[in-house]
């Protein structure tokens, strides 16, 4: 998507995404990230840890929400900053369906910084009707 600088305003909704996360995705993410914690692949260990089942990596959930930004801008380098808190886990069942995470964002503010404009975007990641990321906020450099 190509963004026009004047077209971005406070309150704008970014196009939403729905992403399915499966156990196979967790295995691939574990290998790529080096996070091999068994709560991300073993129901037994997740249960012993007091979790309702195997959970997605928090950083994977964060990265999925970041896809809203990169799909919107068309340029991953436009994301200047991004931070969040992990508030609830995404429980991924051991089936072929996995877990569906609903991702969206809203422009909270547009800042003028000299020769560039910055969109401040609040992101949302929802699983099973509940928010899984708290204070998920990013800054995106808008095209000139």
UniProtKB/TrEMBL annotation:
Domain of life: Bacteria
Domain called MaoC-like: residue spans: 17-105
Stored Pfam families: MaoC_dehydratas
UniProt xrefs under PANTHER family: (3R)-HYDROXYACYL-ACP DEHYDRATASE SUBUNIT HADB, 3-HYDROXYACYL-THIOESTER DEHYDRATASE HTDX-RELATED
Family, as annotated: Belongs to the enoyl-CoA hydratase/isomerase family.
Protein name: MaoC family dehydratase
């Amino acid at each position: 998507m190509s963004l026009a600088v004047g077209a971005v305003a406070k309150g704008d909704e970014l196009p939403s995404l729905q992403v399915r996360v499966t156990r196979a995705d967790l295995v691939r993410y574990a290998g790529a990230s080096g996070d091999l914690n068994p709560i991300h692949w073993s129901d037994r260990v997740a249960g012993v840890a007091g979790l309702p089942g195997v959970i997605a990596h928090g950083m994977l959930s964060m990265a999925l929400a970041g896809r809203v930004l990169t799909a919107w801008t068309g340029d991953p380098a436009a994301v200047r900053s991004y931070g969040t808190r992990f508030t609830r886990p995404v429980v991924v069942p051991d089936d072929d369906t996995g877990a569906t995470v609903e991702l969206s964002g809203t422009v909270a503010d547009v800042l003028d910084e000299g020769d560039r404009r910055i969109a401040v975007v609040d992101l949302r990641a929802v699983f099973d009707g509940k928010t899984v990321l708290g204070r998920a906020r990013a800054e995106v450099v808008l095209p000139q």
